[in-house]
Automatic annotation (TrEMBL), chain A:
It comes from the Bacteria. Residues 31-474 form the Aldehyde dehydrogenase domain. Belongs to the aldehyde dehydrogenase family. Keywords: Oxidoreductase. It comes from Nocardioides cremeus. PROSITE patterns: ALDEHYDE_DEHYDR_GLU. This is Aldehyde dehydrogenase family protein.
Automatic annotation (TrEMBL), chain B:
It holds the Pfam family DeoC. GO terms for molecular function: deoxyribose-phosphate aldolase activity. The gene is deoC. Belongs to the DeoC/FbaB aldolase family. DeoC type 2 subfamily. Keywords: Lyase, Schiff base. It catalyses: 2-deoxy-D-ribose 5-phosphate = D-glyceraldehyde 3-phosphate + acetaldehyde. Residues 1-25 are annotated as: Disordered. It is an enzyme of class 4 (lyase). SMART domains: DeoC (SM01133). Its EC number is 4.1.2.4. PANTHER family: DEOXYRIBOSE-PHOSPHATE ALDOLASE. This is Deoxyribose-phosphate aldolase.
Length: 478, 330
């Protein structure tokens, strides 16, 4: 035994009360769905957590009608300064109940408690605070102050509450009402958020949460009663949604996949670059659309970077997501785990060198060790396709131009990272990268004041900051 | 996975370092030394602070906490460095160093007692063969503003009085004006004057200010043969901080990878609570590796820290907090 073995330090789950079954949240009330209820499980243990209602077409219709009525009668006409009060109230409740929400998010999603506690929940609250501030200042946004109407929003399972906040906060601040569908594997924090809407006395129908899988989402985005579609998720589904919406009057924003290049130059602050690489790909088990899944490292320092990276990866702690010392949690679902296995096996078959630190995976649940592939070329599938797991592909480059060329040589364009001590190089490279977000000497930093979104197959539209208002105001087209 | 393989390291070499620890080319002239130190990878302050803060969020409970508290006690250099120090004060401190908790014989001794050179003999007399070391500050501590001759005499004097560890200060003026060779040579000279005593090199990181400077000073002191690198005198604010200590731990880790030799690290000043001490141990564990979790390789320069460690230790064993009056004042 080591001299200093960290004892288990689990966060108590007693703080959260998970019900046996959950209904839909429509018009301010929880109602039964008319579809076939489904189960949501804890991916770390495969324990069934609750049964959740499925919204069928009639439920979607009821939710859209409730949202329309609330838009016409209450929320649309309400002055911005009054809407702001509700948003501030929601933000404060999110903070007050942060611990409860964090534990629930970790149980339903599999992410480490330190991430839900230190990133997801505080950032979600920050988005509500930020957009609450905009509600009475929309005439200074540059996009006018006229809302679109009813927004249909579909969000993914990787940051369930945070993605909800990214969608709902700006929509409400601008005077729209929403029907939101969380992912079928992670519906619980959205349903807890519904309770928070009740607690905040939000007028009925302003926020409606409907649960279900792909079919429910399809019905929602195809519903003629909505004015706007906002989607975050895979590029495949994004394309399908774009086809559904094409030819209608609906506005649309899509935030899709990514295959971000994290570029490390030979003059990088080395220890911090290693941290950035680790944070870029192993944060949230790599279930991050903007994950730095392609490491582009200058050949002259490639061996050193790899050596240091492996040493650092050996200190990552994988295990019980509720343990406060866990760095890498569970993969969200069996389906996602299968996809990660499949692409990793392809990587190996295509000749890339595979390495993972020694690490014991729990017997139950869905787990994948932090993995790095070396000797990867642009032609490898693991360098081109989004794996959405803790799998890093390492490529090398010789000159700054080659780095830019390789970084841009992907159908995606969501994010990128640059590591160098040279300020002029940061500015030069950032300007040549075709990615919506470029981080310099850091990675995976999210702030409500900063717009986020993609180029090419990573989607269109921006979320966050002043630019994020454009997605929910009529004047954006003018 | 938490158990880190630490022995298979090499490969990672700092920019331009010579294999096997031969740095004679580097230290040949001011120019070559400067080229080497400025060629070390930079430190991004924001990133370093963030990393240290995240290490500080580790939750150390139950058995791990009990282990950590005992380890931290064994790593304390119990310090008194006041103008008002007397033989009596040092004798009291030395007794406490041997038996920090008179009510509990299972409580380990601290690593060393740290005093001014003129009181080293007193400390030695009281400590006898207890195994607790006598550390003496020397070289015109804390400012280091004296001639080389005086600094060396100061050192020899302390060693002769029974100190087996010397805590020297570097010439920050020379360092900040870029006269690295002068700093290097002075450390070499002091080390020679130490004879068999171990040498700890104090940077006074609060005066060096930048993390890049801390990394350069670390390499400079290691090349000069220091057994320990130490953050601060405790006389300047800020004294030890977690990010600064982390950068020094990165330096000793990289030094071992390049040369195979281990160098110790001692944060000093400002670490007052058991909670803080545990954060440092986590950082040692995850940055340098578990090999450094030993009083031979990591020390806390502290005075008030010890009592908090003792209080927490008693709490772990009895389940109750005792008031401060149940622990000796020095």
């Amino acid at each position: 035994m080591s001299i200093f073995e960290y004892a288990p330090a689990p966060e108590s789950r007693a703080i959260v009360d998970i019900k046996g079954s959950y209904g839909l949240f429509v018009n301010g009330e929880f109602t039964d769905g008319h579809g076939t209820p489904f189960k949501t499980v804890n991916p770390a243990t495969e324990e069934v957590l609750a049964e959740v209602a499925e919204a069928d077409a009639s439920d979607v219709d009821a939710a859209v009608k409730a949202a329309r009525k609330a838009y016409d009668k209450v929320w649309g006409p309400m002055p911005g300064r009054e809407r702001a009060k509700y948003l501030y109230r929601i933000a404060r409740i999110l903070q007050e109940r942060a611990r409860e929400i964090s534990v629930l998010e970790t149980i339903d999603n599999g992410k480490p408690i330190k991430e839900s506690r230190d990133v997801d929940v505080p950032t979600a609250a920050a988005f509500f605070f930020y957009y609450a501030g905009w509600a009475d200042k929309l005439e200074h946004s540059g996009y006018g102050s006229t809302p679109l109407g009813v927004a249909g929003q579909v969000i993914p399972w990787n940051f369930p509450l945070l993605m909800l906040a990214w969608k709902i906060a700006p929509a409400l601040a601008c005077g729209n009402t929403v029907v939101l569908k969380p992912a079928e594997t992670t519906p619980l924090t959205a349903l807890l958020f519904a309770e928070i809407c009740q607690q905040a006395d939000l007028p009925p129908g302003v926020v409606n949460i409907i649960t279900g899988a792909g079919a429910t989402g399809e019905t929602l985005v195809g519903h003629p009663g909505i004015d706007k579609v906002a989607f975050t998720g895979s590029t495949g589904v994004g394309k399908a949604i774009a086809r559904t919406v094409a030819g209608s009057d609906k506005k649309i924003t899509l935030e899709l996949g990514g295959k971000a290049a994290n570029i490390v130059f030979d003059d990088a602050p080395m220890d911090q670059a290693i941290e950035g690489i680790v944070n870029g790909i192993f944060f949230n088990q790599g279930h991050v659309c903007c994950a730095g899944s392609r490491l582009l490292v200058q050949e002259s320092v490639a061996d050193e970077v790899l050596e240091r990276l492996k040493r650092r990866m050996s200190t990552l702690r994988l295990g019980d997501p509720l343990d406060k010392n866990t760095d890498v949690g569970a993969i969200n679902s069996a389906a996602q785990l299968a996809r990660i296995h499949e692409l990793s096996d392809v990587g190996e078959a295509e000749g890339a060198g595979r390495w993972s630190p020694e690490c014991e995976l729990p017997a139950n649940g869905f787990w994948f060790p932090p993995t790095v592939f070396t000797g990867v070329s642009q032609a490898h599938r693991i360098a081109r396709e989004e794996i959405f797991g803790p799998v890093l592909s390492v490529l090398t480059f010789r000159t700054p131009s080659e780095a830019v060329e390789k970084a841009n040589n992907t159908p995606y364009g969501l994010s990128a990272g640059i590591w160098t001590d040279k300020g002029s190089r940061i500015l030069d490279i950032a300007g040549r990268l075709r990615a919506g977000v470029v981080w310099a000497n850091t990675f995976n930093k999210f702030d409500p004041t900063s717009p986020f979104g993609g180029y090419k197959e990573s989607g269109y539209g921006r979320e966050g900051g002043r630019h994020g208002l454009a997605a929910y105001l009529k004047g954006a087209d003018a | 996975m938490p158990t880190t393989p630490t022995t298979e390291a090499p490969a990672a070499t700092a920019a331009g370092s010579a294999p096997g620890g031969d740095f004679s080319d580097v230290t040949r002239s001011d120019a070559s030394l400067r080229r080497f130190l400025h060629g070390l990878p930079g430190v991004d302050q924001v990133g370093a602070d963030a990393r240290a803060a995240s290490l500080g969020t580790r939750s150390i409970k139950t058995t791990a906490k009990a282990q950590a508290l005992d380890l931290a006690i064994r790593m304390v250099d119990l310090t008194t460095l006041e103008g008002a120090d007397t033989d009596g004060k040092v004798r009291a401190l030395a007794s406490k160093a041997v038996r920090p908790d008179p009510a509990d014989p299972t409580c380990p001794s601290v690593a060393a007692v740290c005093v001014y050179g003129d009181l080293a003999a007193t400390a030695r007399q009281t400590l006898g063969d207890s195994g607790v070391h006598v550390a003496a500050v020397a070289t015109a501590f804390p400012s280091g503003r004296a001639s080389r001759e005086i600094k060396l005499a100061d050192t020899r004097d302390a060693v002769a009085a029974g100190a087996d560890e010397i805590d020297m200060v570097i010439d920050r003026g020379a360092f900040l004006s870029g006269r690295y060779l002068e700093v290097f040579e002075e450390i070499v000279a002091v080390k020679e004057a130490c004879g068999p005593a171990h040498l700890k090199v104090i940077f006074e990181t609060g005066e060096l200010q930048t993390y890049d400077n801390v990394r350069r000073a670390s390499w400079l002191a290691m090349m000069a043969g220091g057994h320990f690198i130490k953050t601060s005198t405790g006389k300047t604010q800020p004294a030890a901080t977690l990010p600064v200590t982390m950068i020094m731990l990165e330096a000793v880790r990289d030094w071992r990878a390049a040369t195979g030799q281990m160098v110790g690290v001692k944060p000093a000043g400002g670490i007052r609570t058991a909670k803080d001490a545990i954060k440092y141990l986590v950082t040692v564990n995850e940055v340098a590796g578990p090999d450094w979790l030993d009083p031979d390789w990591f020390r806390f320069g502290a005075s008030t820290l010890l009592n908090d460690l003792l209080m927490q230790r008693t709490k772990m064993r009895t389940g109750r907090y005792s008031g401060p009056d149940y622990f000796t004042l020095d």
